[in-house]
Amino acid sequence: MKDFFEEMFFSPKWYHYPLIVILSPLALLYGLMMYLRRKLIAKKDFGMPIVSVGNLIVGGSGKTPFVIALASRYKDVTVISRGYGRQSKGLLKVSEKGKILTTVEESGDEAMLMAVSLPQASVIVSEDRHSAIELAKKEGAKLIILDDGFNRVEIKKFEILLEPQSIQNILPFPSGAFREFSFSRKYANIVAKEGKSFTRKVSFENLTSKMLLVTAISNPHRLDAYLPEGVIHKVTLEDHAYFDEETLKKLLEKYKAESLLVTEKDAVKMQDFKLPLSHMKLKLDIEDEIFSSVDHYVNTY
């Protein structure tokens, strides 16, 4: 069922269209509600520069590596995320100036990846972004970066909207993957399109001749274009799912694999596992014009 809807959202086939049509009234209603929300809600000014990195579609579009690349350029920066998939609630400090303060189960995988990748930054997770911003401001942050913040329409901020290379289904949820009508992109300060404004650079560590790909990311088929030789089988879990070490050990034995091939987002949930890991590392090559625009916003706030 999960695969059916992911395919319908991102690369629909002929057999998806009857359901897309049936769900289209709900999609229209949902899109209209989101449009009115964006138009009617007043924006709060927190008195400091806030940069949002978000997207219009559900699932991954490179937000986490984009946030890491952007935040690494500044001092006294705090990244604020909702902490998707975490086994905790409320406001939680994940790191302070690079010092890790919690576990990946409490922070969520993406927040922990940002924390370990940004030794000079602080990371906070909270469903209530307002309280997280106020805390960061109180603790001396000079810049806030909101992870997945485009739909936080009540916050005054500089908007960077990420778009995939191609979008085959532009309908709002539940007919498609869009969180709002596609024309909402006009509200962004920068629309960064993959393949034009930024490109993915994939590297690998500890490759073996027989690897089992294990991942818990949204739309895992997007990894296919980057997979190295030696991947003998693929195991995909729900986005943000956690792994069981014993289960992974049995899968290694079942497929006679020499190692598990994992993304950085998956690897932070396996830090204490005594299993052979091959790492798939992702970095983004972002055009200088985007950095210049953000610098201008921050410096002239």
Distance between the termini: 47 Å
The stretches of 5 or more residues where confidence is low (pLDDT under 50) are none
Q: What is the H/E string?
A: HHEHEEEHHEHEEEEEEHEHEH
Largest sheet: 8 strands, mixed
Based on CA atoms alone, the radius of gyration comes out at 20 Å
User: Helical region count?
Assistant: 9
| CATH class category name of the largest domain | Alpha Beta
Characterise the protein shown here:
The structure is a single chain. With 301 residues, this protein is of the alpha/beta class. It folds into 2 domains: 39-198 and 286-299, 3-Layer(aba) Sandwich (Rossmann fold), CATH 3.40.50; 200-284, Rossmann fold (3-Layer(aba) Sandwich). The protein has 9 helices and 13 strands. The chain has helices spanning 2-10, 17-40, 63-71, 104-107, 109-117, 129-138, 245-254, 264-267, 288-299, and strands spanning 50-55, 77-81, 92-96, 99-100, 122-125, 143-147, 158-163, 190-193, 198-205, 211-215, 231-236, 259-263, 277-286. Strand 12, helix 8 (264-267) and strand 13 form a beta-alpha-beta unit. The mean pLDDT is 95.
What does this entry show, briefly?
The chain folds into two domains: 39-198 and 286-299, 3-Layer(aba) Sandwich (Rossmann fold); 200-284, Rossmann fold, CATH 3.40.50.
Strands, helices and their partners?
Elements (H helix, E strand, L loop, with lengths): L1 H9 L6 H24 L9 E6 L7 H9 L5 E5 L10 E5 L2 E2 L3 H4 L1 H9 L4 E4 L3 H10 L4 E5 L10 E6 L26 E4 L4 E8 L5 E5 L15 E6 L8 H10 L4 E5 H4 L9 E10 L1 H12 L2
Parallel strand pairs: 1-6, 1-7, 2-5, 2-6, 7-8, 10-11, 10-12, 12-13
Antiparallel strand pairs: 3-4, 3-5, 9-13
Helix pairs in contact: 3-5
